[in-house]
Amino acid sequence: MSDVLVVAEHRRGELREISHELVTAGRELADDLGGELHVAVIAGDVAEFAAELNRPGIDRIHTVAVGEEFDHTVYAAAAERLVERTGAAAVVTPNSVNGLDYAPAVAERLGVPLVTDVLEFTYDDDLTVTREMYGSKVETTAAVDGDRFCLTVRGGEFAPAEGLGEAAVEPVELDPPESGARVTGFEEVAGGDVDIADADVLVSVGRGVGEAENLEVVEALADALDATISASRPVVDNGWLPKNRQVGQSGTVVAPDVYVAIGISGAVQHVAGMKGSDTIVAINTDPNAPIFDIADYGIVGDLFEVVPELVSRFE
Amino acid sequence: MKVLVTVKEVAEPDDDFAIEGTDIAASDLEYGLNEWDDYAVEAAVRLAEAGIADEVVAVTLGPERVEETIRKVLAKGVDRAVRVRDDAFEGTVVDVASKVDVLEAVVDEEAPDLVLGGVQAADTGFGATGVALAERVRFAHAAVVNDLEVDADAGIAHVHRELEGGVEELTDVDLPAVLTVQTGLNEPRYASLRGIRQAQRKEIDVRDLADLGLSAGDVGGALTVTAMTEPESESDGERIEGDAGAAADRLATVLRERGVGAS
Ligand SMILES: Cc1cc2nc3c(=O)[nH]c(=O)nc-3n(C[C@H](O)[C@H](O)[C@H](O)COP(=O)(O)OP(=O)(O)OC[C@H]3O[C@@H](n4cnc5c(N)ncnc54)[C@H](O)[C@@H]3O)c2cc1C
Q1: A257 CA to chain B: closest CA distance, Å?
Q2: Same domain, A136 and A208
């Protein structure tokens, strides 16, 4: 019992990049455990996804053709079935919104420990995982008890597998389980007048601004720099700016020439949406704010002092 | 209909903090209601105000300290609370299955029609308890809900699940169900003075593992934090020093070099 089962992710007909990253992660884990790497492709056009996924490192791809889109009951049942079939010791899924909608159920069904949002792992008789805590302010290593486990792995931590693989593809039958949750459709949100992804310069504001009335401080800077305003999630949740201004995992992914983060701590879901920016500037009162870890230029200071000064330099 | 809200008091580090052993020094941590749970509480209280829920009960795991946070939740309109105490819940990190062992026992006792909790706890960020609980107690579930409409007669919760990249999945979930609530679902209220007064008289039922038919061996152990460090900076970025004026001078130069605000 030393095999690894990775579950691929797709949405609305597209395989998601994290699937290739998990192949790399799964291969590493399988090597550590001395076993094989199995990849599960569940729902949708499984044959096409399997072909696209088939990159070096995989020993076997199992396809489960039940349904078109993600259904957590199907995913949990299929993962359980494949663990029975392969005897896999480890199940690895994306730490995505959908991953977190079924991985905990898989761990429950198998009665194995679950660790989510894993950045790194090593296996040496025991599994040790690296995770962040306290909004990315610290990193922890933790020992996992047991020789079977379920992990969800953060996107962007492992390089995607590349090249052409030769894994055998095996269809697996699964009786469609009855599900208490039925997907009735999808909705695109965050449309509207501006597309922050088009901007060359973004002045981005976070919860540190305190209240809606204070936004004008940051808006003055955007005007002075001829930049577009964007925001972190709490600013949008509070209704201070519309949804189409939100940068991040559940908003828009941006990569401007210059990104000025003002009063933004740098939570992983925010960083996922802006780390590709050419130059990152951060202004924050907290010297330990994780945003400084990715900033090219960092100012530890009060935005209400620094920003008006900066505006005056462009008048 | 009865709603159970799972709430957690989370720890937030001060701007300056020290690591002691495998956690941040307790003196450098501030405690408060988990941001995501605040939205779950609000959703539950609104169901009561709309006449859909007859009773809203909060459940939490933790030491006596957390009662301050629980009082705040009661002040917002939750009817009563259950606090489960055990040495295993003194620290910040408790593995998912242990929490689910306890919550399962509480769900068995309370028999709610709907369980609401936050998507994740801000301190540990596991994001797994709700879905694991649903599987354990055989409830339907949906994770990362940012829109909720309960049709009690039909026994269905119509929800939106917020996926990545501005896409929402529309899902019908059969009751009883567990939903994990995303920020932005509603606008959490502040407790009114009247609410705060009333909360003093509301019940916080303190339970031990034994009261719930569990023993110490049932909880803890699956995950042990062995080290905690401050992450190393990935960028060799420049810390701009000096007062606001000097910092603005330097930053203005940097921005101009990049053609920003050049005109
Ligand atoms: C499933 C999921 C999806 C998510 N998607 C997104 C997403 O798409 N985008 C997103 O942004 N977040 C997202 N989040 C939320 C994310 O986890 C954080 O909660 C959020 O990014 C925090 O925003 P913030 O940095 O503005 O606020 P905080 O973390 O509260 O940080 C505020 C910062 O302001 C600083 N500050 C305070 N006062 C001042 C001052 N006077 N001057 C200067 N600095 C000051 C503080 O030091 C602090 O660092 C998501 C979370 C989940 C669970």
Answers
A1: 8
A2: no
Confidence class of residue A305 from pLDDT cuts 50, 70 and 90?
very high
pLDDT tens string A53-71: 999 999 999 999 999 999 9
Q: Contact B28/B18 with Cβ under 8 angstroms?
A: yes
Atom 28 of ligand 1, nearest CA residue: A265
Instruction: Find the DSSP H helices in chain B.
Output: 35-49, 67-75, 96-110, 129-137, 193-201, 244-257
Contact by Cβ (8 Å): A118, A130: yes
CATH number of the domain bearing residue A24: 3.40.50.620
Domain-located, residue A176:
no
CA of B118 to the centre of ligand 1 (A): 16
CA distance B97 to chain A (A): 7
Instruction: Look up the CATH number of the domain holding residue B90.
Output: 3.40.50.620
Asked whether the predicted pLDDT for residue B233 surpasses 90, the reply is no
Summarize pLDDT for A237-263 with one digit per residue, the tens: 999 999 999 999 999 999 999 999 999
Q: Give the Cα separation of A303 and A7 in Å (integer).
A: 44
Q: Count of domains in chain B? A: 1
Q: Which of residues 26-65 of B touch A (CB under 8 A)?
A: none
Sheet strands side by side (includes A228-231): A228-231, A201-205, A258-262, A279-284, A297-300, B238-240
Do residues A154 and A141 touch, judged by C-beta distance below 8 A?
no
Ligand 1 atom closest to A205 (CA): 26
Mutate one of A129, A302, A309, A315 to test the B interface: name it (highest B CB count within 10 A): A309
Express each pLDDT in B54-99 by its tens digit. 999 999 999 999 999 999 999 999 999 999 999 888 888 899 999 9
Please tell me the distance from the alpha carbon of residue B8 to that of residue A30, in angstroms, as a whole number: 36
Q: Domain of residue A243: give its range.
A: 196-314
Same structural domain, A26 and A160:
yes
CB contact under 8 A, A116 and B126: yes
User: Is B239 part of a structural domain of the chain?
Assistant: no
How many folded domains does chain A comprise? 2
